[in-house]
């Protein structure tokens, strides 16, 4: 993939956040990585989605140093970089402040797996991170945000759970590429909304674990059969 192709993909993925109603103003960012080249492209910080162009994307090396671009990269860059370093199979990362997912993050609650839509994409609850310490907040905050996500995934496979809620902050999602990460961000917002409504209808909810496994495995297991060949 050329650098220009990477910038085009990441620009389009950022515009897709607007199309899906996940962001307003400058409240989110998408990045993607070219692991062969060791290059990440990310949205510039504080730049409106209106008239966002591929040439506005910022290219970084694996430490997050700018190697190309006229703008400062997203303020969340070091969180994205930490995720790329820790989760070696992912190719794209998304951060938004979409309403329902952010509400669960602000409430500090995992989104429980209580529906087949959730289970189609996530093998378990969507986890919420712990409170950040004073040292973490005062130090390299965005890098530490990545580190608390990685800590939360100590016993969780990030391929089976392609997203997280950062407590008091909002959702991050990822996927095999930028498009997939945006798709998972859309799913997270929808399941967050459905779970919120379902709990209001019936606070005593659960779901048969067999149903969760069935729905996850029929899309992601070795004998997956959902969709077309
Ligand atoms: O989390 C926040 C703000 O709370 C940021 O992700 C959001 O404003 C987007 O920042 P950038 O414009 O990408 O630097």
Automatic annotation (TrEMBL):
Gene Ontology annotations for the cellular component aspect, listed alphabetically: cytosol
Catalytic activity: L-ribulose 5-phosphate = D-xylulose 5-phosphate
Residues covered by the Class II aldolase/adducin N-terminal domain: 8-196
GO terms assigned for molecular function: aldehyde-lyase activity; L-ribulose-phosphate 4-epimerase activity; metal ion binding
Sorted UniProt keywords: Carbohydrate metabolism, Isomerase, Metal-binding, Zinc
Cofactor(s) for this UniProt protein: Zn(2+)
EC number: 5.1.3.4
Superkingdom, taxonomy of origin: Bacteria
Keyword Amino-acid biosynthesis found: no
An individual GO BP term: pentose catabolic process
Family: Belongs to the aldolase class II family. AraD/FucA subfamily.
The protein's name in its UniProt record: L-ribulose-5-phosphate 4-epimerase
Species of provenance: Microbacter margulisiae
């Amino acid at each position: 993939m050329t650098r220009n192709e990477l910038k085009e993909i990441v620009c389009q993925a950022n515009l897709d956040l607007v199309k899906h109603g996940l962001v307003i103003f400058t409240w989110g960012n998408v990045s993607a990585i070219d692991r062969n080249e060791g290059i990440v492209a990310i949205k510039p910080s504080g730049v409106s989605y209106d008239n966002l162009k591929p040439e506005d994307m910022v290219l970084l090396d694996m430490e997050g140093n700018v190697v190309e671009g006229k703008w400062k990269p997203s303020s969340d860059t070091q969180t994205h970089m930490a995720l790329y370093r820790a989760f070696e199979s992912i190719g794209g990362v998304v951060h938004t402040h979409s309403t329902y997912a952010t509400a669960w993050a602000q409430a500090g609650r995992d989104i429980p797996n209580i529906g087949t839509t959730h289970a189609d994409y996530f093998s378990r609850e969507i986890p919420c991170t712990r409170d950040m310490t004073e040292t973490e907040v005062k130090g390299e905050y965005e890098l530490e945000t990545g580190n608390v996500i990685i800590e939360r995934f100590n016993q969780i496979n990030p391929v089976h759970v392609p997203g997280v809620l950062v407590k008091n902050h909002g959702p991050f999602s990822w996927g095999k590429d930028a498009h997939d990460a945006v798709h998972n961000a859309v799913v997270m917002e929808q399941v967050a909304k459905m779970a919120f409504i379902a709990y209001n209808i019936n606070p005593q909810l659960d779901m048969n674990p067999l149903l969760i496994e069935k729905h996850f495995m029929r899309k992601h297991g070795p004998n997956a059969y959902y969709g077309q060949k």
